Amino acid sequence: MKIKIFLLLGMIFLCATMLTSPRAPAAEPQPVSIATIAAGQSGYIAALIEDKGIAAKHGIKINNQMMGFTEGANALKLGRTQFSTMQPTTAVNLWKSGTHVQLFAPQIWSGNAFVVRKTSSYKSLGDLKGKKIGNFSRVTGAFFFSAVIAKQQGLDIEKDFQAIPAETGALIALLERGEVEAINMFEPHVTKLVLTGRYRVLIDFDEALNAIFGAPPLKTGIATLKETADKRPDLVKAVRGAYADGVKLIKAGQDKDFFKARAKEFFNLVTPEEITTGLKQSQANFADQWGPSFFQAQNKILQQGITLGLLPQVGNLNELWVP
């Protein structure tokens, strides 16, 4: 009987100790530096991941280093950031120059399109042959995608059109003034132009290249040095997981309130119609594919750029991706 009483008292004491003893503090999220764009989809998803606690769920805290694509690539190359938003074409160029970077998570599709006046008679890119068109500079991903599309239609983007190179605002102005017949443009500017009722999409780049290669072209993904991917697979996995969950949230339309609250800040969308349409387009633009078939499709697109002389010949393109 005494033994039973002692056992009972021991169990009570143990339970009381467990209830009253202080718990070990939860591990602090690990700070992670990511070079990303201040506005647009890149900045938006980084802010969403932090705001919704997605990063913390994966044990990280994102230090969002606002900088352009070129600055981000240089920062990664020089070790000033651990990860960077990056275009696959930039990754290929870095690889050729001796800096082997790898993409390990998708972010957004191109979102580009050739836009023409709504009243124009053009029905295909071939109809614009010999005409003036506005395009981005030769070193950009936007130009690269337009060149690949032209090649697939038996055209040369540099020889078969009177191309006028310019930046975003200038391209839109050229179209509005009637100085060009079409422009290469990306979201959210395409949405804003179409909503005026004066313009229409002639060719959606994502639809066109998806039909040819089996996947839309990846405009940006998240990249890191191969050395980091090899030595810190746990950290790469955490960042990938956070971005994957962020994309899932967007694809499910569960970021609706956040988008409306931040539409002006990230996309310069103001009117209710712009915000509603922009939300739908944002949902479509975020990339949610990864794996062997996706890599194969992107490699084919990149190989076209190599063939056209827009990208350097490098090693096995499969080494560009972290499965």
Describe the structure.
About 50% of the residues lie in helices and about 20% in strands. It is built from 14 helices and ten strands. A five-stranded mixed β-sheet has the order 2-1-3-10-4, sandwiched between helices. Strands 7-6-8-5-9 form a five-stranded mixed β-sheet, with helices on both faces. It is globular, with a radius of gyration of 24 Å. Mean pLDDT is about 90; it is low at about 1-25.
Reconstruct the topology from this structure.
Elements lengths: L1 H19 L9 E7 L3 H12 L2 H4 L2 E7 L2 H9 L5 E4 L1 H9 L4 E9 L2 E6 L14 E4 L5 H12 L9 E4 L2 H9 L5 E5 L2 H7 L3 E6 H9 L4 E8 H6 L1 H19 L4 H12 L4 H14 L6 H16 L16
Parallel strand pairs: 1-2, 1-3, 6-7, 6-8
Antiparallel strand pairs: 3-10, 4-10, 5-8, 5-9
Helix pairs in contact: 2-11, 2-12, 6-9, 12-13
Summarize the structure.
This protein is an alpha/beta fold and 323 residues long. The protein is built from 14 helices and ten strands. It folds into two domains: 30-110 and 217-320, D-Maltodextrin-Binding Protein, domain 2 (3-Layer(aba) Sandwich); 112-213, D-Maltodextrin-Binding Protein, domain 2, CATH 3.40.190.
Helix percent band? 40-55%
Strand order of the largest sheet: 2-1-3-10-4
CATH class (first level) name of the largest domain: Alpha Beta
| Count of β-strands | 10
Query: Could you say which structural class the secondary elements and strand pairing correspond to?
Result: alpha/beta
CATH domain topology of the largest domain: D-Maltodextrin-Binding Protein, domain 2
- CATH arch. level architecture of the largest domain: 3-Layer(aba) Sandwich
What would you give as the CATH superfamily of the largest domain? Periplasmic binding protein-like II
The poorly predicted ranges are 1-25
Number of domains: 2
Gross geometry: globular
Profile the largest sheet: 5 strands, mixed
Average per-residue pLDDT, rounded, comes to 90
Radius of gyration: 24 Å
Helix and strand succession? HEHHEHEHEEEHEHEHEHEHHHHH
Query: What distance lies between the first and last C-alpha atoms, to the nearest angstrom?
Result: 64 Å
What share of the residues does DSSP label as strand, in percent?
15-25%
Number of helices: 14
